[in-house]
Amino acid sequence: MDEIKGICREEIALEGLDGITFGSLWFRLQNCMPAFPLPIDDYTKPFIWELISSLEDVNFFELPTARPPITVADDAKEFSELLATYVWFDQVAVEPQQVVNDEESALRGCSTTYYTRKNITSEVRPETGKILTFAEVESR
């Protein structure tokens, strides 16, 4: 389980301050190298969610508008044998990034929604200990 948590944490972190949506996470896990050790299907998604929601260093946010899904054209996918990594080029229009220098939280980087998203970590992982289920979160 530590391996699965580690891979998920890496894929989430790679998105930087913008974070990652479920759709993008599932896509990235299905295409990561080395291969993710589990299939990404309706049976494993709730299990993966349970692991992710227990990661105390991961926060959860509600975006002001839905992010478009990742799409990859066949000619935009390049494989580098030297690095053994896939490089994906999203076909969606790139949103303008806003520089973030949040002195209160000591975070720096770029994000399209940092100042407009809503932190819902306390709703997802309340102090009562009842973490929202995958179905509850996905329906939001």
In short:
The protein has helices at residues 2-13, 22-31, 44-53, 121-124, 134-138, and strands at 61-62, 78-80, 85-87, 98-102, 107-111, 118-119. With 140 residues, the protein is α+β, with helices and mostly antiparallel strands.
**Domains, number:** 1
- Total strand count, please? 6
Average of the residue pLDDT scores: 81
Write the H/E string, N to C.
Answer: HHHEEEEEEHH
Uncertain regions: pLDDT < 50 for 5+ in a row? 80-93
Strand order in the largest sheet: 1-6
The radius of gyration computed from the alpha-carbon positions, rounded to a whole number of angstroms, is 16 Å
C-alpha geometry: globular
* Beta-strand share of residues: 5-15%
Separation of the first and last Cα atoms: 27 Å
Count up the helices. 5
Structural class assignment: alpha+beta
The share of residues in helices is 25-40%
Largest sheet descriptor: 2 strands, antiparallel
